[in-house]
Structure formats: structure tokens, C-alpha cells
Specification:
Number of helices: 9
Strand content: 25-35%
Distance between the termini: 52 Å
Helix content: 10-25%
Largest sheet: 7 strands, mixed
Number of strands: 15
Radius of gyration: 20 Å
Structural class: alpha+beta
Shape: globular
Length: 364
Amino acid sequence: MDILTKLKDWITVPRLGSLTAAPKSHDSQDTEDDGVTFPSDHMTPEEMERHCQQQLKSLPPLLTRQLVEYPPPAEQCLTGNIRIMQWNLLSQALGVHNDNFTQCPACDLDWGNRRYRILEEIAHYSPDIIGLQEVDHFKFLQRGLGTMGYEGTFFPKPSSPCLSIKSNNGPDGCALFYRTDRFELLQTVTKVIDVWKVQSNQVAVLCLLRERRSGRELCVTTTHLKARPGALNSAVRLEQGRDLMAFVAPLAAGRPVLLCGDFNAEPTEPVYGAVTGAGRLPLVSAYRQAAGAEPRYTTWKIRATGEVCHTLDYVFISVGRFAVTALLPAPTGEALGPRRAPSLTYPSDHFSLVVDLRLLAEPA
């Protein structure tokens, strides 16, 4: 039986996280963090970072990294640096109950600590735009990031696997945040990604933003494609990538595009080529453009089957429209330690990608 036949058969069978799974009821509606307060409704990133460190003072410090800078472009730039962060946060419900991190003690996954580690990581790098996946505590992020001047949109998966976990805090999904002093929101569009015109369980969030200083408009999208290895899932991701590009292209309407996400695919998978080779919307990885290659890994964890170390996360940008001026490398194995991630010093099994970009003048 070929992959095409298997995929068609698979689509017709409802199962957890499959293409046809129906939405489920859940026990809570993102209420776990309702009692959390912040010192002020208006905080700088530095103040938020210090606040998080105070909350975590009994723990070892956050694992931080140094940005690698690249020479400024010779071409005319229309904007100063725009900093993008891409990060799969690790759903709290899935991380505790489903992901089977054999070298990660339960205390390392305590949400009371992880929520501040996540904010600390974001505040430390202070991005202008943030694409997030596996978000199942959006209200906490909305309030915490809101104190630093961000606004954001959350779109849940139609049948999030979190909803099958008794102690869930609601479904997981994707979120896109932007700094309001830097950008004006023009439009937000959300999408459940299709595979052969059948609704899947993966989603995307798209925002059209206008940079206040230059008046230039950007099309920014974040997504999280189908997980797990194998030819069948690779075929699903390819179809999802094609549908994603068909969704983004008409909304971009010639605007420069930033597309970030957890694609659950190595650069050798067909979906990578579907994104970077799209004729209507030519994109390139920001890391490949500047460094010549993708990071060696964007996730590194230990499960019952052994160490899992892959490159799955990307920041794609319009070809010829941006200069990359800085990149954040992945942490070294030595810095992570033998238990890898997540840990007390790093709250997710995926590492944040941070990219500094400058918008270039369009060629004459």
C-alpha cells in the first residue's frame, strides 16, 4: 500500500490528534493563573526579568545565550532592527503527562516555576514580534507580556491533545504577539490547516502589521505542523505546508513575509522545500541566509527511546526583502547538561530562535 493510499485511509479514521478529530469539552478555561499578579501594569523588560528572577531565586539561573552579530547590509534599509522570537513553549499538560522526559524530574516541570522562566526568557531577549506554539496558558502570557507593551492573538487546535488530560488548563495552540509601540495591527486572520481539503488539527495565526516608524507593512505568521516521524506524517506535513503557503500568499499581497513555527520537520523533509520553494511567495530561512545553515538542533531531550536531537523550528523570511543582522545560537550540550531539556534552567524542550532583521528597500 503506497503512502497516498495510507494517508487517504488515515484521514477517514477519527483518532486523537488526527485530521478528523472533533473538538472535545474540557475541565477548565485557562483559569490556573488567575491569582498571579505583577508589580505593575507597566513594566520594562528589565523590570520583568528581575521580577521573574526574584520569583525563582531558589533555583539556578536561566540558561542564556549570546547573539551572534552579522555585518550591517550595504543596501538601503527601511527600518532599524526588528527582533523576532520563535519558540515552542512546551505545553504544560503535555510536558507533564504525555512527553515522557525520562531525565527530567517532576519538580523541573512545575508550572509555578516554568511560567516565570518563560517570561524571563522572553524579557531577556526583548523581541518585537513573538511566535509561540504549544501555548496552553495564554491568559498568563497575555497579562505578563501585556505589562511590557505587547498585544497578542491565540488560536487553539480544534482537538488539542491537552483536552484528554484530566488536569488540563484548556487546549494548546499558537499565539502571535507584537510590541504595540513598534507596530500597529492592521488585520488578524486565523486558520485551521487543511490536508486535501480536510480540516487537520494544526493551526496558523497571521497578522498584518504596520511598523510605526517607517509606515512599512509586514505579513507575520506562526504555525505548528503535525508531529512525529515517518513517511505518512511527512506526507501530511507536506500537504499542510502547501495549504499554509496558499493561505499566506494572497494575504501577504506583496508585503514582506515573516513565517515562523515548529514545522516538526528536518530541513531534508519535503515540507521545507514546499515553504522555501513556493513560486508565489519565495522564502528563505533567516539562519540559512546569514549563517549558511540551519542550527544543528532546535530541540534536545531524552525520552525512553533515547536522546532526541533535531532541527524542527524555523524563521522564514521573504527572499531579498530582509537583511539578517543577528542570530541566537542553540545552547551547547555542555551548557544544557546531561539531562538536556527541559530543566530547572530552561523551561522547554525546544530552544527559542531569535533573529534581528532590517527591512530592505525594494529593488528598482
